[in-house]
Design brief:
The chain is of the alpha+beta class and 128 residues long. It is 21% helix and 33% strand. It contains 3 helices and 5 strands, in the order αβααββββ. The longest helix is centred in the N-terminal third of the chain and has 11 residues, at 2-12. The two termini are 16 Å apart. Keywords: Cytoplasm, Protease inhibitor, Thiol protease inhibitor.
């Protein structure tokens, strides 16, 4: 696993430093997979009735990465009707994911920036 992590760092850290955010990137199948992996957690954080106008969609649009003890993915998500949210999804070195932050009322043009982890999540995640 350590070899994989070192190889990842060698290939993917150009343009940003450990702990800092990468440049903005277009969404990929991996970012959509990350969103899908925490879909229920995201829906649980949305206000009641958020999806009443139309069925909710969670489509990743763009993202930035942060290397920590694993990876934080700051992802812009379209939820439908030109509404957007930003989420933070943490992925540990074993590939386990958890939603750690969400910001509502974003627009397509809002930059993806660091924000506080504000989602109550199971802290035993880190000890598994």
């Amino acid at each position: 696993m350590l070899a994989f992590f070192c190889a990842y760092l060698a290939d993917n850290t150009i343009g940003f430093r450990v702990g800092g955010l990468s440049e903005l990137k277009d969404a990929t199948p991996k970012t959509q997979q990350l969103v899908d992996s925490v879909r229920d957690e995201i829906i649980g954080q949305l206000p009641l009735g958020y999806d009443r106008e139309q069925p909710l969609k969670l489509k990743s649009i763009s993202y930035r990465e942060q290397i920590v003890a694993g990876f934080n993915y700051f992802i812009k998500i379209e939820t439908g009707w030109n509404r957007y949210i930003h989420v933070i999804i943490y992925e540990d070195l074993r590939g386990k994911t958890v939603l750690t932050g969400i910001e509502l009322q974003k627009s397509l043009s809002d930059p993806i920036e660091v924000f506080d982890t504000n989602v109550n999540f199971d802290t035993t995640f880190y000890s598994r």
